[in-house]
C-alpha cells in the first residue's frame, strides 16, 4: 500500500500564522504538525509516501523530511496549485499509486489511541473497496456523517447534514483499493468546483464496497484547523507526554519500532537533536531498548 499526505491549501483560518508558512509545518507542541499524519502511515506499515502541498511550501517540506531514507522511508513530493478538493489527491498521485492500494491522510489530522497500529495494519491488508474511519462527535453537522445499520454496516454518507442521522463523523483517514484512481478521475466537480471526497466515498458505497471502522472510546481525533483547536491539540499532546513519559508521533521511534531502521540509526537521529528534550528522548529510548509502549500515533 502507498501513502499520501495531503498538506495543501493556504490555512486561511489560521491567518496570520500561516501567511508565511504551511499550516502543516507549524508546531503542535513539540513537533511539526505533519509528523502526526506521517506517523499514522508509518504505523500502518506504509513506507512509500507522497506529500502533496501548495507550490510555495514544497521545498520547506523537503527540507524537513528529505527523501525519507533516514527513517527507512521513500518520500516524494507533488503540488496542488489551488484547492480542487481532497479527491484530487488521487489524480495528482496517479503515478505514485501505480497498481497499488493507497491510504490518504489529511495533513492537519491527529489520531491517538491504544493499539492503533494493529487496527491500521489489519485494515490495510487486501483492501477491497474503501475503508473509512468514523469517530463520534458532538457536532456532526460540521462533518461528513456516516449512518450504519444495526449490524454496523455502512448505509449512507451525507456531507454536513442539517439533521444528522448519527453522530459518526468521517475522519481524515481513508484506505482505498486501486480503483480509486479511475473513480477520482471520473468525478464531476461540485458547486464549489472541487472533487469531493464524500462523492468518491459514495461511489464506493453505491457499489457495496465501502465499510466503516469506528474509532470509539479511548481514541482521540483532533482537527487542528483553527487557533483554538491548535492550542487544544498542543495541550492534549503535552499533558499525555508529560504524564506517560512517551512521545506521541515520534517518527524516529516509530521507524525503529516498526523495523524500518536499526537502533543505532535511531540513536544517531536523536544525537542530531541532542540539545532538545525531543532529541534526548530519541537517544534514551534507542539506547535503553526498552519495550515499546502501546502503539499510538
Question: What do you see in this structure?
Answer:
The model has no long low-confidence stretch (mean pLDDT 93). The protein has a domain at 2-133 and 172-245: Spore Coat Polysaccharide Biosynthesis Protein SpsA, Chain A. The chain is an alpha/beta fold and 297 residues long. It has helices at 35-43, 58-65, 88-92, 94-97, 116-124, 180-185, 197-206, 227-244, 251-257, 263-271, 277-288, and strands at residues 2-7, 27-28, 31-32, 48-53, 74-79, 102-106, 109-112, 130-136, 144-148, 154-159, 168-176, 210-214, 220-223. Strands 1, 4, 5, 6, 8, 9, 10, 11 and 12 form a nine-stranded mixed β-sheet that branches. The chain has a two-stranded antiparallel sheet with strand order 2-3. Strands 7-13 form a two-stranded antiparallel sheet. The chain has eleven helices and 13 strands.
Count every beta strand, where a strand is a DSSP E run of 2 or more residues.
13
What do we call the CATH homologous superfamily of the domain at 2-133 and 172-245? Spore Coat Polysaccharide Biosynthesis Protein SpsA, Chain A
Helix content: 25-40%
Count, helices: 11
- Helix-strand category: alpha/beta
Report how far apart the termini are: 18 Å
CATH topology of the domain at 2-133 and 172-245: Spore Coat Polysaccharide Biosynthesis Protein SpsA, Chain A
- Poorly predicted runs are none
Shape: globular
Give the CATH class of the domain at 2-133 and 172-245: Alpha Beta
Share of residues in strands: 15-25%
Any idea what the radius of gyration is? Answer: 19 Å
The largest β sheet comes out as: 9 strands, mixed
